[in-house]
Amino acid sequence: MAEQYVKDVCKRLPKLELHAHLNGSISSSTMRKLVERYRQTLKQSSSDFSVTHGWTTTIHKGNKRTLKECFAMFKIIHTVVCDEEAVTMVARDVVCDFAADGIIYLELRSTPRCNPSTGMTKISYIEAVWKGVEQAVAESNFSIDVRLLLSIDRSRGAADALDTVELAKEYRKSSPTNVVGIDFSGNPEVGNVRELLPALKYAKESGLKVSIHLAEVPDVNNETSLLLSLPPDRIGHGTFLLPSNGGTIENMELVTNYKIPIELCLTSNVKCHTVPSYDQHQFGFWINRAHPIVICTDDKGIFSTTLSEEYQVTAQTFGLSISDIRELSKQAVDYVFDEDLKTKLREKLESDGIKSRPH
Ligand SMILES: [Zn+2]
Q1: From the CA of 19, how far away is ligand 1's center (Å)?
Q2: For the whole model, what pTM was predicted?
Q3: Ligand 1 centroid to residue 16 C-alpha, Å
């Protein structure tokens, strides 16, 4: 198939994004606005200024960064996204970007952050995110439904994890359609999973959906077993799950038997060097097994990608047909965390299929 044709189909295809970190999804143009605002409005001292000097949030094609360097990028973002106004700007722009790329349903994840120097609290952070989402939905010419996952940052310890779950419970109760679950993420080389597991169990017992980043790095099979014992409602990456990649048969069978959907983010993995090349990505293994999978971006700003491009590169690398691509997008509905929206989303995808069928 001609490259341009596949590109157009992937762009027009209504898509669902289930693995997008808010701060990692900031585009270069939003980042420019944030840095400018940080320098001028907040009148930072010269030492702070050096933090944002020479910033680059986008990894240009061919300019590969290590996983460690990717996490360093988040430090710059956290510096400039320092108060509610910045958080709202980010959420609004990110949702608008996704809507313009043909996303009809977005699950956005973020760690509630406080900043004593600006007075931002975890609660005002969550509310600032939702304010930005509402602005985007009202302003956008596109139809998009957005739900939030609150992220547990594994480097912050058990008390913080529990606090995040309590907040998610509270927000789901008071506003049942916004917060739908918990994400477990952060630097995979930091944090003790055994200490964090009770918070994740509590989230599940409380009826929250749970998506877990696991097996992102090699040699963590015991940690992976612990996390799979929950079991998670979805898995992020699972890069080193397969025995052919250093994982265990037991863990792979657990994932297979429970049919746990896996969120696959190809460009993120290739650019972080956790997968050597697109054609060696675990997508090939899982699609051949007909295992539930969903294509996602992870951090579209950091990795300079879009969901359309992720569908395109997947189709071209693995020789998928147009109907395979449509099927992938349709299947994603089965894995969304807001059960109440599934019928509406299926109808939307169905009506698109009718529109695009040749006469
Ligand atoms: Zn992620």
Answers
A1: 6
A2: 0.93
A3: 16
Please state, in angstroms and as integers, the Cα–Cα distance from residue 41 to each residue in 34, 88, 119, 279, following that order. 10, 16, 16, 46
Whether 276 contacts 282, CB under 8 Å: no
Tokens 């189909």 — which residue?
9
- Say how many Å lie between the CA of residue 212 and the centre of ligand 1: 9
CA–centroid distance, residue 33 to ligand 1 (Å):
24
pLDDT in tens, 177-230: 689 999 999 989 999 999 999 999 999 999 999 999 999 999 999 999 999 999
Going by C-alpha positions, the residue among 137, 97, 104 that lies closest to residue 15 is 104
60 pLDDT tier (thresholds 50, 70, 90): very low
pLDDT of residue 48 exceeding 80, the answer is no
Ligand 1 mean position to 183 CA, how many Å?
Answer: 9
Distance CA 201, CA 231 (A): 9
Q: What are the boundaries of each domain within the chain? A: 3-349
**Token duo for residue 17:** 């994004």
Average pLDDT over residues 3-32: 93
CATH of 3-349, one of 3.50.50.60, 3.40.50.720, 3.20.20.140, 3.30.360.10: 3.20.20.140
Query: 253-286 pLDDT, tens per residue?
Result: 999 999 999 999 999 999 888 999 999 999 999 9
Q: What is the DSSP string of 140-176?
A: -SS--EEEEEEEEEGGG-HHHHHHHHHHHHHHHHHST
User: Which residues are designated catalytic?
Assistant: 216
